[in-house]
UniProtKB/TrEMBL annotation:
GO terms for molecular function: S-adenosylmethionine-dependent methyltransferase activity. This is Nodulation protein S (NodS). It comes from the Bacteria. InterPro entries: Methyltransf_11 (IPR013216), SAM-dependent_MTases_sf (IPR029063). The lineage of its organism: Bacteria, Pseudomonadati, Bacteroidota, Cytophagia, Cytophagales. Residues 47-141 form the Methyltransferase type domain. It holds the Pfam family Methyltransf_11.
Length: 213
């Protein structure tokens, strides 16, 4: 696992310079989906896992009193730090498959935006998340839809040597439902998001809003 995560880290360090400027419908749609899902809720302590270049960080700060934003890639974090300067945010470089010493206080929102496809054992991550979540706290997940993953879509970017595909793990939509049930999380919302809102096509993004009892 360590070797795989090192490869993922190297790839994001390489991708960071162009991540924000690439044409990337998945990145953009997830940002819209997240705002739509969380717009009516405010939070004290938010944990943004896999914050990347901070696409969602500034917006989350409008809903939260304090935010810890975590990412594996130093270069992605550098971009996020340039973008978001606030006393309310604490950026941390860490691998979320390892210890969660970056959590200093119980959270009332944990977000995963386009991260879980890089995590093989999402069950272990759910256990850690539920452990640090306050009762009544929320978990938000925004992922490339499983159907897109079955069709071969995955995180990729262009390099002078050609297209670089990242290490990804397919998670079935039912896996998220099963994990929610296992951890006694209420499914507040499950939504599928379609390109141009065209429901005759296959969905691109799935989102879950889960709540700890
Ligand atoms: C597709 S990017 C998404 C970034 C941002 N959330 C967004 O929606 O634009 C995935 C991010 O997850 C991070 N990541 C991947 N594996 C990770 C791990 N094991 N621990 C922490 N971050 C990880 C990557 O470094 C990358 O920044």
């Amino acid at each position: 696992m360590e070797q795989q995560n090192n490869e993922i880290k190297d790839a994001y360090n390489d991708w960071a310079a162009q991540y924000d400027t690439n044409h990337n419908h998945t990145r953009d749609m997830e940002g819209i989906a997240m705002r739509c899902t969380l717009k009516d809720i405010t939070f004290n302590n938010c944990l943004e896992l896999g914050c990347g270049t901070g696409k969602n960080t500034a917006w989350l700060l409008t809903q939260a009193q304090h935010l810890t934003a975590v990412d594996l890639s130093e270069r992605m974090l550098e971009k996020a730090r340039e973008k978001v300067q606030s006393e309310k945010v604490n950026f941390v470089q860490a691998d979320i498959t390892q210890g969660w010493s970056f959590v200093k206080r119980p959270c009332d929102l944990i977000t995963f935006s386009l991260l879980l496809e890089h995590i093989e054992d999402i069950s272990a991550i759910f256990s850690k998340a539920v452990h640090v979540l306050k009762p009544g706290g929320y978990i938000y997940i925004g992922e490339l839809h499983s159907i897109k993953q079955y069709m071969g879509s995955k995180a990729r970017y262009e390099t002078p040597e050609g297209t670089k595909e990242l290490i990804c793990f397919t998670h079935h939509t039912s896996d998220f439902f099963k994990l929610a049930k296992l951890h006694q999380l209420d499914i507040v919302e499950f939504e599928e998001h379609f390109d141009n809102d065209d429901r005759k096509n296959i969905p691109r993004i799935l989102t879950f809003l889960l709540q700890k009892k």
